[in-house]
Design a protein that fits this description.
This protein has helices at 19-22, 27-41, 53-66, 83-91, 129-147, and strands at 2-7, 44-49, 70-74, 96-100, 122-125. The protein is α/β, with parallel strands linked by helices. The chain has one domain: Dehydroquinase, class II (Rossmann fold, 3-Layer(aba) Sandwich). The chain has a 5-stranded parallel β-sheet with strand order 2-1-3-4-5, sandwiched between helices. α2 (27-41) packs parallel to α5 and α3 packs parallel to α4 (83-91). The protein is globular. The two termini are 15 Å apart.
């Protein structure tokens, strides 16, 4: 099983950016945690991060072409307004799990809305780095359920 982890805008600054909200964990540490859990679950997790919206859409298109089994996405601020990324995600035929380290529903009002909500399998937010691990488990379970 091959899963694609998409990290959005500013996530390369995890560990430095707003530690009160996001902690001090770095993107490399998050990716290492995902790879370790993926190995335990018998799946491969490829991670991708960009600060460029068009590049994110291109990577989603490539995931479609590659036939990834599931996509995890923490798009950051793009979650709340990027219809381009939403439309790219809608091309996918595999489960998509949206995740956020912070509880987007307990933050600024603009963060309460996800333009992806209607097309994702589910959302996980508010558990820090564990949001990533929970999302990985949820994606694997969704793929397994679809095979039955």
């Amino acid at each position: 099983m091959n899963l694609l982890m998409l990290h959005g805008i500013n996530h390369n600054m995890f560990g430095k950016r707003d530690p009160a909200q996001y902690g001090t964990i770095t993107l490399d540490e998050i990716n290492a945690s995902l790879a370790a859990l993926g190995a335990e679950l018998g799946v491969t997790v490829e991670a991708y991060q960009t600060n460029h919206e068009g590049d994110m859409c291109e990577r989603i298109h490539q995931g479609y072409a590659d036939g990834v089994d599931a996509v995890l996405i923490n798009a950051g601020a793009w979650t709340h307004y990027s219809y381009g990324i939403r439309d790219a995600l809608a091309i996918l035929t595999c489960p998509i799990v949206e995740l956020h380290m912070s509880n987007i529903h307990a933050r600024e009002p603009f963060r309460h809305v996800s333009v992806f909500a209607e097309i994702v399998k589910g959302q996980i937010c508010g558990f820090g780095v564990d949001s990533y691990l929970l999302a990985l488990r949820a994606a694997v379970a969704a793929v397994d359920a679809a095979k039955k």
